[in-house]
Every structure is written in C-alpha cells, then in structure tokens.
Amino acid sequence: MTYDAGAQMLEIAGTVFTLRDVGPSDCTAVLGLHRRVFGSTVDAAWFDWKYRHGGGEAVGLWQGNELVAHCGGTPRTVLHHGRPARDLQIGDVMVAPEWRGVLRRRGPFYHVSERLYSSRLGPGKDFFAAFGFPNERHLRLAVKMGLSWDSGPVEALSWSGTGALPRPGWSWRAETLAVDHPEFDRRVTHAWSAMQQEAGRYSMGVRDAAYLRWRFAMRPDQAYRFVQLRRPWQRLPCGVVVLGPTVAAPNYLQWLDWVGPLALLPMACTLARLEAARSGSAGLTTWASPAVALRLADTGVTQRSVAAVLGVPKASDMTEEQVQHLDWWLMAGDTDFL
Predict the structure, then answer these.
(1) Please, what's the b/e burial string for 65-101 (b: 16 or more CB within 10 A of its CB; e: otherwise)?
(2) Cα(60)–Cα(72) distance, rounded to whole angstroms?
(3) Spatial distance between the Cα atoms of 194 and 197, rounded to a whole number of angstroms
C-alpha cells in the first residue's frame, strides 16, 4: 500500500469526514471495522497476509479517529482472452452500521469506492481493471451510483450425498500434495501450463505456484489442502485440486479451485466429491461462473443458486461492451474471503 494522493475533507449529512488511503498503521482500525461489519475474527496476521504480503490497496473514510467506511482490493494477474493484465480484486467493502442508512448518491460507500477506483484503475494507472463479488443488493447500489457494471451471476453449485459416487477407475491416482514438498512448485507449474493453453477464450486469473502459495498456503486464518490428480505411469500430475474447510451448514466440503486442463474439470469434481465422502462431509460445494458451470453441467449437481454477482468498476480500461463479452472463469478460490 504505497499509493498516497493526500487526504480530502468531506461533509456528509452535516458531518465532517476525512477521506484518505489506508496504510499499515491503520491495521487496528481496519480489523475493528471488519469485525463489526462481517462478524469476523480476523487479526493482524490476516491483515499482513492481505495488505502487506498481498500488496493490498485500500481507501478509508474517517470520522475523527474512527474508520467508518473502507474499500480495498488485492492485485491479481488476469489473462483476458490470453492477454495478461494487472487487475485489482475488490474486497473488504465495509460501512459502519450507523452509516449504512446514508444511501444517498454521495454517501460513505460511494466516496471510498469512487476514490479507490478513480485513483487506481484505467489508462495510465496501476491497474487495468477490477472485479469483485458483491451480493445483488450491493451491486444494484453500485450500478445506480454509476460506479460499476453488472457482469453477471456467479452460482453456488452443490453435490449432496455420498452414496453411489462415480469412481475414477484404476488409471487415476489422487494424492495429497504438501506445500513443503520439494517439487510443489514444479508440479503446480506443470498443471498451470496445461491449463494456460486453454485460457485464451476466458478472463482467467493466473494460477501459478506463487499465487497458490500466497492465496492458500500463506493465509493464516484458514486451512486448505492440495490434492494432485495423477496417472500412475506419470510422475507429474495432470492437475491440482484445492479443497478448503468444511462449511458448517450443511456440512459440505468446499472445493476452492482446480489447476489443470479444462477438459478434466469433471474428473476433478469426481475427485473432490470422493474427498468429501472420505472426510465425512455430507457433500461438496463450490462457486462457478457460467463458463465453469457449463463444464460441470453433467456432473450430477443437486443444488444451484446465485451466490454473488460479478461487479466490474466503470473506471476499468474497458468499455461496457467489452466487459459484457468477457467470459470469466471463476471458482470459489477466486474470492478473497472463502
């Protein structure tokens, strides 16, 4: 977080605020607001993971010494139809409960979001584009305020039950891949290279070893597992599945990501469902953009619903028409909070 354009004094509903960038010294204030808004238990290690090691950017609105609104994001390299770009993944959009009712066009939510977007996104700025996963209500508000475009739904897909699961057969091996394995980077690189060959038609975040280490292995408040899918006659895996903690209700194992050939996504789903059964979970769940959901259409999905809506800020270096033609490849691990 090195960007600094100076503080700005604002008056909202008769109250004077300070709008400025958030820095490392604001850790305690950010954690406090995060806990109030989301009911989370994040701590300084989480802040360091995201905003120090992850290079996070953020803008805050202050009433005196109290942080009352916040909009942040973390850098993410995204291949937009094969062309790499430095994007910003929006997250930690927070407004203190007592100021949420100020939904006027120039309220706290608007000011923190607009400043982050206008100072970071677009031609000549640090980031080409941004994307985030708000709920439908919050995106409608952002669209109404002229901040973002609606780039379509992201679904929650679930596979319930552990009986009569499909079997991968003798020609597949599913093995735990420890992050401290001496060949972890090489094996992930091999899987990502195969996936990248098919990335040209999508907007797909890079899933190389460095990203997997930061996103999953370094995160202090969650525990994830890597499972490699391998042919018995091959040393290197065809792909790597990332599994997360079990969702408390309804006791489903989270499938965060797949790194490997897109044609093997259904096989990765079979592997993940078997892992869910072995763990004693009642089923498996993940998030899927339309492109991912299409590849999983014949895997026996038992439940689907809209989990979030993909928002793309208008300050991004794209036209609305270009945004609407992006075919996003997104799973649960593409969020910053699951």
Answers:
(1) eebbbbbbbbbbebbbeeeebebbbbbbbbbbeebee
(2) 9
(3) 6
Q: How many CB atoms lie within 10 A of CB 277?
A: 17
What homologous superfamily does CATH list for 157-309? Gcn5-related N-acetyltransferase (GNAT) (3.40.630.30)
pLDDT tens for each residue of 107-140: 899 999 999 999 999 999 999 999 999 999 889 9
| The residue to which tokens 């420890």 are assigned | 178
- Give percent of the chain above pLDDT 70: 96
8-131 carries CATH number 3.40.50.10540 = no
Q: Are 159 and 299 in contact (CB under 8 A)?
A: yes
Distance CA 87, CA 205 (A): 9
Counted residue by residue, the chain has a size of 338
- Kindly state the helix (H) or strand (E) to which residue 143 belongs, with its residue range: helix 136-144
Task: Give the model's pLDDT for residue 166.
Answer: 73
Q: Is the full-model pTM beyond 0.85?
A: yes
Residue type at 182 in one-letter notation: P
Bridge partner list, 127: 121
Per the listing, tokens 């992050």 go with 179
Q: Which residues contact 267 (CB under 8 A, 6 or more apart)?
A: 168, 172, 229
Neighbours of 31 (CB within 10 A): 18
CB distance 256 to 224 below 8 Å: yes
Q: Where are the domains of the chain?
A: 8-131, 157-309
Residue 327 φ/ψ region, left for φ over 0, alpha for ψ in the -120 to 50 degree band, beta for the rest: beta
Beta strands in 231-317 (DSSP E): 239-247, 252-259, 283-288, 303-313
C-alpha torsion 46→55→27→247, nearest 10: -30
Beta strands 15-21 and 8-12 are: antiparallel
